[in-house]
């Protein structure tokens, strides 16, 4: 078989996928770019060309800047917490103890719980009148009166971050655990014989095995966190006083609540660009890490 | 083996207990809420343990009496099953030939990176044109339209998982069959696809879970019982004026049941899928 025929055959086999990708991803993306330069409404008016007006308006607006800060804070804090908790949980699950298999099986539960169910569950836990958190803290004597955890701008974002971490740190733990189990026993044993302490064993023996998979998890979790919509929409809809309004929530409001398709599209593309920059930066980081090890 | 000093062992058990509590407490509480009488849930101080087991919400939600809360819940359950089922089948159908081609033809493997890159796109970047397009074809508020949109997520994802699955099947088996005179369709049908059956099943399950979990597009593109999925129905319940929190919890338990069961049963396959690079979005 000629090389020519092989690659033609490959493209033919990929044709159905390519058709799907072009029609549900490629075309909409191009159309979003077009819309972002118009003042189109979601329904009705097709809109006329307005140049970079939408971008200028969005980038200089306080809504965008505040949403960017909120999103960055959400992503940095939740992903950092998930990584730290995940690695600790993995180190624990890598020890010998009774019930280890059962605990490892339980770790899949938060991950399997649908995001919307998780958000609903935590909304009930944080409920200002009957919620379990208020009840528990009151009964333990830690607070005097019930608080509205999701209703106060000071605590809403933190409450969301906790709910997000609870769902996602077990995944990081499972990924880290799989990496830990790939560390050869004799190397750890040799390090022990050579008198390396627990910290040095972690840093120089375990960490090289952990770094790659953790970096991948870090990349994917950060990108997910930057795109966050579901959990916030269900728990606070971006409130109170817009204190939990992330970029995706802002795009939703602009394009669908206010039906401003043009400026919504420009905002969506700014978010896309930010995510892309993150992804490219991480890819470079990954390649450097792969080259170093 | 490491030396186990008793202090360290105690520390390990204490941490394991803590981790178990952190993982289990919210889930157990969701279940307790679903079987507690309404009075227990609004009591102060809160009744942590139900005074009696109350299964009435399960009966309410699973009863098909017309115009009841149950009928609406069952309709959304059926919609979720239909949308996730259709989207998964379609995604696997287009992903299998493409993944095989990419796996066996290094010259075109760059196209896979283009496919994976789209997975990073935030859904908001596609939402407005998709909304207008669905409206144009009369596919807003239809399970078929929503399934089509879910291909934006499922098609790149399954292609990626399946490609690594095909990579693990040695090409030599295929070339040997080819030398023996087998045609390509015979090789794929009789040799490669049966060998790839496990990874295809795992990919299909992952895709189904992703679709079952999806909320953003469903919120945008569906509006009533004809297409509203379970996630939207639950968000409606949570954000609405339902006074019985137990009912919301029950809907949550029922919606979580399929993915949790899949997660527990398929644990090994899921974890190896997760660690080979696929992570649920």
From TrEMBL, chain A:
Its main location: membrane. Residues 68-286 form the ABC transmembrane type-1 domain. Keywords: Cell membrane, Membrane, Transmembrane, Transmembrane helix, Transport. The lineage of its organism: Bacteria, Pseudomonadati, Pseudomonadota, Alphaproteobacteria, Hyphomicrobiales. This is ABC transporter permease subunit. GO terms for cellular component: plasma membrane. It comes from Rhizobium fredii. InterPro entries: MetI-like, MetI-like_sf. Pfam families: BPD_transp_1. It is a multi-pass membrane protein. The keyword Transit peptide does not apply.
From TrEMBL, chain B:
GO terms for biological process: transmembrane transport. Its main location: membrane. It comes from the Bacteria. PANTHER family: INNER MEMBRANE ABC TRANSPORTER PERMEASE PROTEIN YCJP (PTHR32243:SF18), MALTOSE TRANSPORT SYSTEM PERMEASE-RELATED (PTHR32243). It is found in: Cell membrane. Belongs to the binding-protein-dependent transport system permease family. This is ABC transporter permease subunit. SUPFAM superfamilies: MetI-like. The lineage of its organism: Bacteria, Pseudomonadati, Pseudomonadota, Alphaproteobacteria, Hyphomicrobiales.
């Amino acid at each position: 078989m000629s090389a020519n025929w092989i690659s033609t055959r490959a493209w033919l086999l990929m044709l159905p996928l390519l058709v799907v990708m072009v029609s549900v991803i490629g075309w909409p993306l191009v159309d979003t770019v077009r819309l972002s330069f118009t003042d189109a409404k979601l329904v009705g008016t097709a809109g006329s060309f307005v140049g970079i007006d939408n971008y200028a308006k969005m980038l200089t607006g306080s809504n965008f800047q505040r949403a960017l800060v909120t999103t960055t804070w959400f992503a940095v804090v939740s992903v950092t917490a998930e990584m730290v908790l995940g690695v600790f949980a993995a180190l624990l699950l890598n020890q010998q103890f009774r019930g280890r298999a059962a605990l490892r099986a339980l770790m899949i539960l938060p991950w399997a719980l649908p995001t919307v169910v998780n958000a609903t569950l935590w909304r009930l836990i944080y409920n200002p009148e009957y919620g379990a958190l208020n009840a528990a803290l009151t009964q333990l004597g830690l607070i005097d009166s019930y608080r509205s955890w999701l209703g106060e701008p000071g605590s809403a974002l933190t409450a969301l971050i906790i709910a997000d971490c609870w769902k996602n740190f077990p995944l990081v733990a499972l990924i880290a655990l799989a990496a830990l189990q790939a560390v050869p026993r004799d190397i750890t044993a040799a390090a022990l014989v050579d008198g390396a302490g627990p910290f040095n064993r972690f840093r120089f023996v375990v960490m090289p095995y952990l770094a790659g998979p953790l970096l991948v998890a870090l990349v994917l979790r950060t990108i997910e966190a930057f795109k966050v919509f579901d959990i916030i929409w269900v728990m606070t809809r971006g409130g109170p006083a817009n204190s939990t309004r992330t970029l995706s929530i802002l795009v939703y409001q602009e394009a669908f609540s206010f039906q401003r398709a043009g400026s919504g599209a420009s905002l969506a593309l700014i978010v896309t660009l930010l995510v892309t920059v993150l992804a490219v930066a991480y890819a470079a980081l990954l390649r450097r890490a792969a080259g170093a090890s | 083996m490491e030396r186990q000093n008793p202090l360290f062992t105690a520390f390990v058990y204490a941490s394991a207990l803590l981790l178990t509590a952190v993982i289990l407490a919210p889930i157990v509480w969701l279940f307790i809420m679903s079987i507690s009488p309404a009075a227990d849930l609004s009591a102060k101080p809160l009744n942590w343990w139900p005074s009696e087991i109350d299964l009435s919400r399960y009966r309410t939600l699973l009863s098909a009496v017309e115009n009841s809360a149950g009928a609406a819940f069952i309709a959304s359950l059926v919609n979720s099953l239909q949308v996730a089922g259709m989207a998964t089948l379609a995604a696997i159908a287009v992903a299998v030939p493409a993944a095989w081609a990419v796996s066996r033809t290094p010259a075109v493997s760059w196209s896979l990176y283009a496919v994976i890159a789209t997975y990073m796109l935030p859904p908001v970047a596609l939402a407005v044109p998709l909304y207008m397009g669905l409206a144009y074809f009369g596919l807003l508020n239809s399970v078929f339209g929503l399934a089509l949109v879910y291909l934006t997520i499922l098609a790149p994802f399954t292609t990626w998982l399946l490609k690594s699955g095909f990579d693990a099947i040695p090409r030599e088996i295929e070339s040997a069959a080819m030398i023996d005179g087998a045609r390509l369709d015979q090789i794929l049908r009789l040799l490669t696809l049966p060998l790839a059956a496990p990874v295809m099943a795992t990919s299909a399950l992952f895709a189904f879970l992703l679709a079952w979990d999806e909320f953003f597009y469903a919120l945008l593109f569906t509006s009533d019982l004809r297409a509203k999925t379970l996630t939207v129905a639950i968000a409606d319940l949570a954000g609405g004026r339902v006074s019985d929190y137990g009912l919301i919890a029950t809907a949550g338990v029922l919606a979580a049941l399929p993915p949790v069961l899949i997660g527990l049963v398929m644990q090994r396959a899921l974890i190896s899928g997760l660690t080979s690079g696929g992570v649920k979005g």
